Amino acid sequence: MLAADDAALRVLVLENAPPMSFRDEFGQLTGFSVEIARAVCHEMRVNCAFDVVTQSAMLPTISQGKADIAAAGLLETPERRVKVLFAKPYYRSISLWLAPSGVTPGQAGVKVAVVGGSAQDAYGRKQGWDMHPVATHGDLGAPLLSGEAQAVLVPMISALSLQKNEAFRQLGLATTVLQAPELSGDASFGISPFRPELQKEINAALDRIKRNGTYDRINSRFLPFRVS
Amino acid sequence: MIRSLQAIQAGRAFALLAALFVAAFGAAVVLLALDQQRVIEATSRLQDQTVPEIIRFQRLARNLEQLRQEGERIFAVSSHASRQQSMFVVTLIASHPSILEHPGAAQLARETEQFLGEVVRQSIADDRRPATRYDEWQRLAARLGMQVDDVSIQGINLANNDLVVATSAMKLARSKLMMALILVGVFLLGFMILVRRHLIQPLQQINLALSTLSADRPAPDFKPSTMLEIQAVEESILEHHALLIQNDETRQVLEKLANKDGLTGLMNRRHFMQSAEVELQRAQRYRRPVTVAMADLDFFKKLNDTYGHAAGDAMLRAFADLVQDTLRQSDLVCRYGGEEFAFLFPEIGPAETQKLAERLRARCDAMEVSLPDGRVIKATVSIGLADASECPIEIALKRADEALYEAKRLGRNRVELSGPPVPATDSEPDMRTARLF
Fold this sequence. Notes:
The complex is a heterodimer of chains A (228) and B (437). Chain A is an alpha/beta fold.
């Protein structure tokens, strides 16, 4: 979707990252993050134009001020905090290590599939793991099915959609919750550092939709449990 | 409080009262504002912190309930894939921070995850196994259900604290408001009483005193006022009253001075004419006899020339004393000018007046006046009389004057009576009318 000229805010979203951000059967962008972003725009009474980007392009675009809001569940890490502003968290996430039994994090010779530019990607590289980055969350299953990667490190909600894939389930991977501070906790929208005034407005809008039921309706629509 | 003081300025007294009132009412307002602030704080805390917290508890309850549902599904479905799907959700919920931050829920979720994990693993080996552990699950599910209830109630109860604070602040504020209103009422009542007692009533008394203030009446009797301003006004009124009396006395003195002849102490001519006019009118109205006279000291100019003006003055004074001594109290006499005197004798006709005048003439004739240098002087008086009972005073005096000249002409030191009145000129038409008939 291209930014309309009169759009007050340019909002970056991912696609092919169900159930957070994807296109429905009519080709319309939807998902938990997208709908929360829409609700926030509605609460702020501003027009928002959605631009689809990849995970790896999202933060650079925001930090350069080419867009106003990154509407995806970004984990707030020290590296990111110097580049972009963060809104109040809109859900809390954990990261999962999905691998065949016996394949443990950090094990030599294990290729780990991640979404390029994600917190999980950054964490794996920092640990010195052999990473196999893919462009979108929807592409995460393929490297494991083809044998290019032996494990996948994903945010919990991406794992949910991977589990829905019959072939992926057939791999019979074991689930481990990785309890690293960089991999779990608050997930927030990113805000352009050139628009600091947006932070307060977005936070107030988030508070309102959490109080007035909009948030919970969107939660129920896309996710099997309460993620805030 | 005011009464106990000797005196106080009204302005200060009311300023003091107003200051007290402002202080007391201000304190009440501040106290009320503090209560209001507490209510505002409690309600904004309820809105900004407690309500999100309550919602958080509701979401936690919802997740626990979801755990229970996923557990039920694991037992209900026959598809292993569905069981794995549910088990995955159970793992996510049990690991999610929202569950982990509530110790009771976290403990139960971990138990549930372990139990259901075992069940799912066993179901891989033997599809019938889940049913055998269903009773066990039922107990766990019941505990989950109760945990849901507990968490819900826990969440709702968070609001209680804020509500208790707000309610108690409101109750306190209500009683303080009542106190403030009573305070205002008492102050207003007190203010009105003080204004009435110390301003309105004294002002009414002052108004009454001013409207009746006169030299003829006694000085107004004010009750002592405590207000300096009122006291000042009352003192001014008393001073004004004293001044009125003083002015009246002065007026009387001045009137006497204005009516007297400076040398002899007798009436002056102007005052005599006024008094005689009044007396004559009265006599004529009641048809009472009245007589006028003119007297002149004989050879007075010669006496002046011989003995000096001081001797003349002494003679005039002696004659005046003689006149006052001789005549009746009711007779009017004045120094008409120079050595000439005018008289009015009420209630007696010319005959009786003649006797009186004769006695005056005789006593004057017999009088000797000693001068300071030891010399003795004498003088005689000529008197002309006229009946004044039927003519104006000017005419009567003119006729008396004519009689006086007659007395002078006939040799002085004698009393002459004017002849019968000459008909007045304005009666001539009547006479002509009389002749017509």
